[in-house]
Amino acid sequence: MLNRQGRPTAAGEAGINAHPTFTGNKALAQVEPLLFEIGRYDTTGVDIDEPEAFTPRLGGLERKEAIGLPGLSEPETMRHYVRLSQMNYGIDTGLFPLGSCTMKHNARLNERMARLPGFSDVHPLQPVSTVQGALELMNELGRYLVTLTNMTAVALSPKAGAHGELCGMMAIKAAIEARGEGETRKVVLVPDSAHGTNPATAALIGFVVKPVPAREDGWVHVEDVKERLGPDVAAIMLTNPNTCGLFEPQVAEIAKAIHDAGAYFYCDGANFNAIVGKAKPGDLGVDAMHINLHKTFSTPHGGGGPGSGPVVLSERLAPYAPVPFVHMGKNGFELVEQASDATEKPFGRMTAFHGQMGMYVRALSYMLSHGSDGMKQASEDAVLNANYIRAGLSDLLSLPFGNKPCMHEVLFDDAWLKDTGVTTLDVAKAMIDEGYHPMTMYFPLVVHGAMLIEPTESESKSSLDLFIATLRDLAMAAKNGDKERFTGAPYHAPRRRLDETRAARNPILKWTPPSPVAEAAE
Amino acid sequence: MRYLPLSNTDRSEMLARIGVKSVDELFADVPKNLLLKEPVDLPRRKGELEVERILSRMSAKNVTASSVPFFVGAGAYKHHVPATVDHLIQRSEFLTSYTPYQPEIAQGTLQYLFEFQTQVAALTGMEVANASMYDGSTGTGEAVLMAHRVTKRRKAVLSGGLHPHYAEVVRTLSDMASDSVVTMQPDVSGSEDIVSQIDDSVSCVVVQSPDVFGNVRDLKPIAEKAHKHGALLIAVFTEVVSLGLVASPGSQGADIVVGEGQSIGNALNFGGPYVGLFATQSKFIRQMPGRLCGETVDADGNRGFVLTLSTREQHIRRDKATSNICTNSGLCALAFTIHMTLLGEAGLTRLARVNHANAIKLADQLAGVKGVEVLNKTFFNEFTVKLAKPAAQVVELLAKKGVLAGVPVSRLLPGAGLDNLLLVASTELNTDDDRAALVAALKEVL
Q1: Which of A370, A387, A493 sits opposite B104 (nearest CB)?
Q2: How many CB atoms lie within 10 A of CB A376?
Q3: Which of B245, B319, B404 sits opposite A126 (nearest CB)?
Q4: A/B interface, count of CB pairs below 8 Å
Q5: Distance between CA B106 and CA A485 in Å, rounded?
Q6: Which residues of A touch B342 (CB under 8 A)?
Q7: What topology does CATH give the domain B65-80+345-445?
Q8: Which of A63, A306, B249, B316 has the fewest beta carbons closer than 10 A?
Q9: A200 contacts on B by Cβ (under 8 Å)
Q10: A 456-485 near B (Cβ less than 8 A)
């Protein structure tokens, strides 16, 4: 139950909340109302002087009604958002083994570098002569990405991974149209194990998605691809390493088959972290691949963004890269912002400006810090850590594709939970009580009750040992019938399990005032 | 390497536990001839100090907005962001968290998203807002696709006052999706006859206000005509501060409101990351793109928040999803929400008045310079001037004198015959000295 301030008054379960408090707080665990329940319409935390009198030039379109935006003083603002932050789990809190998301350490050096005024306090439409250092940074980042992947060109501007996919698929579509096959090549092959963004992206620009079914070994087989190839196929979207945590051993043969059929190979680079410095996608026959700077190159996930999804392109697709792009001219770095100024054939524009500069700086700072030796080591450690977890749990949990080496993430299914009455979701919630962020659950879809664990290279051996011991303890508890530890979990989080069905059935997507805003504002 | 905790002893012990002799055995599925033997051809690792030196050197080659009289806008605006904002968004629980898929340990993110959605809905005068898009331009592209889903028509009409880059983003997406787009001629005076383009085949009409030339546009007649023909009005803004002073798009009949939120809480960042604001009417929520945060209760009956209506989204619907968006602009949305909380209604409306007042002062001063003609009858904090010389050339000359005067229209619309037009923006940061410097420099070069 909630009282007027939106604070809980229910005591909760005996033993957990045996000593209810007057405030509903539990020491450091503070309950925080919404801004709209504590803010005031006449309060501001920013001191600005009222301007001298002026006659508006808004053509009579001045706002006449109140907006409905409460304010807080600076100390209140600080406290409100600090308290909210304390209800969140981050990488800095503990192990964050979210498979396919690469929650690695976010070095604060990168934050400092992104805030250098020459990067953060420059405008995208300043004269090019005044932003030579910013263009140099973009050029350098591009050089690193092209070198690490052995590709020809890079389109930096996509704003996130899915936006990068869109950019890569648009380049493919442009290339196909340039060949005069726009009307015939409409099919994009997408394995069942792919991220949902792959089919969504292909469909967005008019491709017809055809699945490539999963095999029992977790791999995509070249004969399954060949069977579906024909003059109607534009591309395959293949994730490698794949979402089952495995490197596709037939990737080079698949690439060759695709190319022989006149189609393109789009690689989803979400799992690039496993192979940076170990293998180059260009060597594998990839035509386009997005790189999630917020995964592989550690730009912070920030609670769901901003990300950044540059796309590297093969020689065949490079001419179609969208504007804008940077190149070296006779007077320094130049920015090509209009298709008409390009010698190539840009397919268009992905976004208003030059992409996620703040993320470029962080990613380059990461790359400079690691160097080629450090990036190779990071990939090896990421893979080593995932395999160490596999080795530590293979006897208690179930591996859908057998106990064979994985890449930087290890995939379990829920066969080990058979007859326990405990689900993958329950295990995830019990992990929360143990102080861990859960692994990725129920993805990929090709495995029943999937649990995809990606520890990243940022974890120490002792951290992994404790994690393995914890999961072993949970596995034993499930098998020994301690169902309650799972089905009621989490018991110790800022909230117990939340009712998602109720949220979807009757969507409440904003706060509404108990009385009209205008009244409250007076 | 300072970010990697494993020692060589750890690595050997772990390899032994796994049962392999070398780490390359774990890479056995990589074709042997393609597994790299040596590190790639890039420099080796560097300490913090060295990285700082390299990047600081690059940074120092740029002219920063704060270091000169600065009048550059056209879709990104230099405003003062309180120190509190940047401190709070660097709290590691915000910075290093993921999309809130596990709501029990992500209430911080979810609650601020709920606050963000409420603020955006209020500002735009709409019933619901999503949890952010990448930026205003990509949000506009998504809005057009959404209008097509709602109306089951596939033709968009873009105003000649829409930011040319936004129009290009929409055209790129529409061309690829084989949807049709009509783009009106550049509309410097804000007087285009866009309503005559609206008929029963049109899905949506996309109008920016204040438009790229600065004109404040009356959206009501456009909304009326659109609705008469079953089309939607998509109202776009690139300067969110204007909503503190100008009538909301919702109050003028907009069906979808989309815009750039960078001005509140976010730095210029040379173009990104920014934060797209996206709002609409409740009846359209199931056609909306992007994440939505909703209120619910937990097992103890306590209020909590979750991501909701995810059956619209790619991870559930795959090729039937409303959008392919996954990551959005969470942290930039947080910066927006914190700054907006600090401002409150009182602060935002005052900030808007200061911006408008500064722009009026600047326009009046520039109107007195020989060779400068102010073209706008209406504007908020940005307007268009016609110079006696090509604007690109003037901007270069002024940059050499240490004044960043604005954006030449020819940079956005090359070949449109608008070479002498300059977009000039003025925010709360501009002082009397800044204005005097611009006026003096213009007098010298014109």
Answers
A1: A493
A2: 19
A3: B404
A4: 742
A5: 21
A6: 44-46, 71-72, 74, 77
A7: Aspartate Aminotransferase, domain 1 (3.90.1150)
A8: B316
A9: 314, 317-319, 321, 323-324
A10: 457-461, 463
Greatest distance between any 2 Cα atoms in chain B = 82
- ipTM for this model: 0.98
B140-173 b/e (C-beta count within 10 Å ≥ 16 → b): bbbbbbbbbbbbebbbbbbbbbbbbbbbbbbbbb
User: Which residues, listed in sequence order, are joined to residue B157 by a DSSP beta bridge?
Assistant: B182, B205
In this structure, how many other beta carbons lie within 10 angstroms of the beta carbon of residue B46? 18
DSSP state of A352: S
Residue-by-residue pLDDT tens, chain A, 522 positions: 444 445 444 444 444 556 889 998 989 988 899 999 999 999 999 999 999 999 999 999 999 999 999 999 999 999 999 999 999 999 999 999 999 999 999 999 999 999 999 999 999 999 999 999 999 999 999 999 999 999 999 999 999 999 999 999 999 999 999 999 999 999 999 999 899 999 999 999 999 999 999 889 999 999 999 999 999 999 999 999 999 999 999 999 999 999 999 999 999 999 999 999 999 999 999 999 999 999 999 999 999 999 999 999 999 999 999 999 999 999 899 999 998 888 899 999 999 999 999 999 999 999 999 999 999 999 999 999 999 999 999 999 999 999 999 999 999 999 999 999 999 999 999 999 999 999 999 999 999 999 999 999 999 999 999 999 999 999 999 999 999 999 999 999 999 999 999 999 999 999 998 865 544 444
A63 to chain B: nearest residue by CA? B247
CATH class of B83-339: alpha beta
Q: Which of A148, A160, A154 is nearest to A370 (CA)?
A: A148
Delimit the domains of chain B by residue range: 8-51, 65-80+345-445, 83-339
**Token pair for A391:** 């080795």
